[in-house]
Amino acid sequence: MSETIEQGARAYHHGALREALLNAAREIVRTEGVQAFTLREAARRAGVSHGAPAHHFGDKTGLLTELAVQVLEERLALIADYGARAGAEPIAQLKACGLANIDFMIANPRLDELCWRSDAIDRTHPALQAAQGKLAGDLITRMSAATGQALNPDKESNPSTLLAIAIVHGFAQLVNERMILTHVPEDERAARAHQLADEMLDFMQDLFRGLR
């Protein structure tokens, strides 16, 4: 026990306690879901006292909200990475955005749920709202370029944007809920889902070209 406390103290002094707690929270939510998360368990996995999380995050909501912000920023980075490899054509950029979102949601279903559908986070937190706004804004920008239309920044005002969101989220949900690819071995599901999503989005490109 003393060794665990000393390890936690060293992590704190090196400025790593915050990251250790975020990593612990991520692993709990990723593998067991947000309903299984407790500050005490996060502290135990980080190797610190159960009161340590309050020093950096205040409470459970604070830690999970910061984790949600981190996850959304990673999703934005993945979209940017896919976009950088997709070429400059606007419709190719839109497809890259869709494929990145699908891959992310399939790889991280419980973390994605934390960011959008959980009551365990503070939805009024400025950093969370900013990250969510960047995701929506990125989609609007890409959709505007792909369709040749100046779309309203409010995604719910644009049928084409809602269609894109429905396609992406619907496909990821079908995969995550085992409604498709049901007989594919577990270690092959992500790759097979990516291939199928790629084919589906190729088909959808023709529809969006028709909007130009």
Low-confidence stretches: 1-6
CATH fold description of the largest domain:
Tetracycline Repressor, domain 2
C-alpha Rg, in Å?
20 Å
Work out the number of β strands: 0
Plain-language structure description:
With 212 residues, the chain is mainly α. The protein folds into 2 domains: 2-58, Arc Repressor Mutant, subunit A (Orthogonal Bundle), CATH 1.10.10; 61-209, Orthogonal Bundle (Tetracycline Repressor, domain 2). The chain contains 10 helices and no strands. It is globular and about 60 Å long. The chain starts with a helix and ends with a helix.
Briefly summarize what is shown:
By secondary structure, the chain is an all-alpha fold. It has helices at 2-13, 17-32, 39-46, 52-57, 60-84, 90-107, 109-117, 126-147, 159-176, 186-209.
Write the layout of secondary structure elements.
Elements: H1 2-13, H2 17-32, H3 39-46, H4 52-57, H5 60-84, H6 90-107, H7 109-117, H8 126-147, H9 159-176, H10 186-209
Helix pairs in contact: 2-3, 2-5, 2-7, 5-6, 5-7, 5-8, 6-8, 6-9, 6-10
Features:
single chain; mainly alpha; Arc Repressor Mutant, subunit A; 212 residues; 2 domains; Tetracycline Repressor, domain 2; 75% helix; disordered N terminus
